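Notebook p. 47: complex prediction with flavin mononucleotide.
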Amino acid sequence: METKDCIQSRRSIRRYTGQHISRETLEQIVSLASYAPSWKNTQVARYTAVADRAVIDRIANECVLGFAHNAGILQNCNLLVVQTILVKRSGYERDGSFSTTQGTHWESFDAGIAAQTFCLAAHDLGIGTCILGVFDEKKVAELINVPSTQAVSALIAMGYPAENPAVPQRKSAGELLRFIG
Ligand SMILES: Cc1cc2nc3c(=O)[nH]c(=O)nc-3n(C[C@H](O)[C@H](O)[C@H](O)COP(=O)(O)O)c2cc1C
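Predicted complex, structure tokens below:
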């Protein structure tokens, strides 16, 4: 797929066919996501693939802060990727101090770039994704035993698409861009 087509045609997919996503396909997506840029090439993003129905259902029932919409997406997907980041690396000096005045900002920045690269790679392979931000990160970390050196950044529900949603409206370049000079 052309890069610009991939960027434009990717949608958040919330309904899935139930077709199995192979381990090889997931590895290919993670391998492509590893090409995302990161702070000093620290590559802090990690991915835990959860295919266990009981675990996904527990996340849906116990970890979505009462947001039924997200519980429904999780109950419909049969592969959930929990994106985590290695903490205190991106945006930090070796002595543990912040490199910039933006503090922890670069950790989420790196996670976001990696997540979008992941979603674009999945889309190119015909797999739909939906990044979920409304969840309790501590409960999810506890449920899937995330090591204390990592923090949960996002949930990415995945599956072969069973819907073809319309494009949510985008702002024009004129609204987004400010020129100086
Ligand atoms: C950081 C972030 C958090 C999001 N959280 C949720 C969520 O909790 N539930 C949901 O259904 N969609 C969520 N989304 C998906 C957005 O709603 C979606 O990207 C947006 O409406 C634009 O649609 P599109 O992805 O199809 O272009 C999230 C997206 C991002 C980037």
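Notes: The chain has a mean pLDDT of 98. The domain at 21-163 is CATH 3.40.109.10 (NADH Oxidase).
Next step: compare against the earlier run before touching the bench.
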